[in-house]
Specification:
174 residues, mainly beta, 6-stranded mixed β-sheet, 4-stranded antiparallel β-sheet, 2 helices, 16 strands, 5% helix
Length: 174
Amino acid sequence: IVEVSELETITVKEGEELVMPETVEVTYADDKTGEVAVEWNTEDVDTDVPGEYEVEGTIEGTDLTAEVKVVVEAVTPEVVSVEAVNAKELVVKFSKPVKEASVIASTNVKSGVFEINNAEAAGFTSSASLSADGKALTLVAADEWDGSYAIELLAEKAETLDNAKVEAHQGFVN
C-alpha cells in the first residue's frame, strides 16, 4: 500500500450513534486500488458533546493508519413528537434528555409544564413517567381520551440535563 485515500468528514447529531466506515480505499504500488478493513479508535468521541474530533484507525494487516474528522452537531432542545399510544397514553419525545424533576412531580406531570386542551395536564392525567434515557415522557390518563386534543409544552418549563430550556411546542393528538 502506497497511499490511503482521504476520508470525508463524518457528521452526526448530538446524541446519535456514531457509525464509522468498515473499510478504507487504498492504492497499491502497481496503481491498483482496493478496499481494506480498518479498526477505528473512537473511545475519545463523545456524541453527547458537540464538537470536532480527529479519529484514527488501524488498517488491517499493516502498520498504516487512516484519519477522519468527526463532527458532532449540537441539537436544539425541543419536542420532536407527541404520539397517542392508545386511548389512555400519550408519549412526548424530546431531542435531548430532560431532567425528571423539571417535568414530573411525585408520579404525575409537573403542574404548569403542559396544557392539554387548556386544562392543566396534572389534572388530566393519572400518572407520568420518564424513560431511562430521559427522552420520552409518557402521560397516562385516568379515563380514556376520545377525539383530538391540543397539547402544549409551555416555554422554558422543561429542562435538559445540561440546564438548557426546552423550546415551547404546540400540536394536536388524535
